[in-house]
Design brief:
140 residues, OB fold (Dihydrolipoamide Acetyltransferase, E2P), 29% strand
Length: 140
């Protein structure tokens, strides 16, 4: 191909990995790297146990709309709820921002927060589970 006084050559490669793509370590190598990283950081890099996302649907507080999840009323403020907190029916548990409007999400029943399923400032979809609240009558 020629553009003005310059000439260019184009090479098309099909079914190949992108140039400069890092090699994927085997699962054994990845585990060794993870272990080494944790040891170097004084175990500060220990990953938390993954959150169970498959709770009974009737126990999940769901997003009423598409938007951005916020667990606190303002940056740097204490979160509305944390895992282990007890909530009352009608209590604000988080905010969903949609079109620059902050909408309060409230608990529909009293109970204990057993899991928070999304990260702060994460995009959520209407109907997506935000947290799991075990109803009071089931705690006993």
């Amino acid at each position: 191909m020629e553009v003005g006084d310059a000439r260019f050559w184009v090479k098309v490669v099909v079914d190949a990995e992108p140039a400069g793509a890092p090699e994927q370590p085997s699962s054994e190598e990845g585990e060794r790297e993870q272990e080494a990283f944790g040891e170097e950081e004084g175990q500060a890099a220990v990953l938390e146990e993954p959150v169970q996302r498959e709770a009974p649907p009737e126990h999940q507080v769901r997003s009423p709309m598409n938007g951005v999840f916020y667990g606190a009323p303002a940056p740097g403020a204490d979160p509305y709820v944390t895992v282990g907190d007890f909530v009352e029916a009608g209590q604000v548990v988080c905010l969903i921002e949609a079109m620059k409007t902050f909408n309060e999400v409230t608990a529909e029943w009293a109970g204990k927060v057993v899991a928070i399923l999304v990260e702060n400032e994460q995009q959520v979809k209407e109907g997506e589970g935000l947290m799991v609240v075990e109803p009071e009558e089931e705690r006993e």
